[in-house]
Amino acid sequence: MLGGNDYLEVTGGNNYANGNMREDTIVLRGGFGEYLGGKDSDTIEVFAAEEGTSVNGNLGEDYITGTVAGVIYRGGKENDLLAVSQGNVWGDKGADTFRAVAGDGFAVIKDYTIGEDFIEIEIEGSWSNVGDGLMFTDENGDQIMLLLGIEDAEQLILI
After folding, report:
1. Which CATH superfamily is domain 7-155 in?
2. 47 in Cβ contact with 65 (< 8 Å)
3. Predicted TM-score of the model (pTM)
4. Which of 67, 68, 70, 107 is nearest to 90 (CA)?
5. What are the structural domain ranges in the chain?
6. What are phi and psi of 136, to 5 degrees?
7. Where are the alpha helices (DSSP H) in the chain?
8. Mean pLDDT of 13-18
9. Most exposed residue of 9, 48, 123, 124, measured as fewest CB within 10 angstroms of its CB?
10. What φ, ψ does residue 8 adopt, rounded to 5°?
11. What is the Cα–Cα distance from 33 to 35, expressed in whole angstroms?
């Protein structure tokens, strides 16, 4: 992508894109690939993508949303906001916020850092231990978010 505030909408193909400089927006509506926000604060939205697709905010305070299973979501460096309803999610470095989002599946948070990262929940529900993590289930019984390696809700910073 170019050096300014760029906008990219992907509808198919096998792609690689790097936002490079400034505040970029990448919207995925299909296809496969690797997408990097680049430097500065970027927005990446995933509405449709093939399994194995990877998105990474890279540098800056990024906003990443997604509703697609099989996609790898990464915040990168800095303090990122990740609002993902299904797929594997890493905040990476920085004090990241993982927003609970209802959808067809649940997000698997791979690297919640106790005492640094945040969980944002605006829906009613409860936490329970499931295997090697902590699952948030909404009041309708739908599983929303699994935090791997976390044993107790008291370990979380809720906002």
Report:
1. Serralysin-like metalloprotease, C-terminal (2.150.10.10)
2. no
3. 0.94
4. 107
5. 7-155
6. -100, 125
7. none
8. 96
9. 124
10. -130, 130
11. 7
Task: Determine contact, residues 59/43, Cβ cutoff 8 Å.
Answer: no
Chain Cα centroid distance, residue 21? 21
Alpha-carbon distance 97 to 83, whole Å? 8
The backbone region for 79, taken as left when phi is positive above 0, alpha when psi lies in -120 to 50, beta otherwise, is beta
51-107 pLDDT, tens digit each: 999 999 999 999 999 999 999 999 999 999 999 999 999 999 999 999 999 988 999
Three-class SS of the chain: CCCCCCEEEECCCEEEEECCCCCCEEEEECCEEEEECCCCCCEEEEEECCCCCEEECCCCCCEEEECCCCCEEECCCCCCEEEECCEEEECCCCCCEEEECCCCCCEEECCCCCCCCEEECCCCEEEEEECCEEEEEECCCCEEEEEECCCCHHHCCEC
Angle (CA) 142 144 116, round 5°: 155
**CB count, 10 Å around CB of 135?**
19
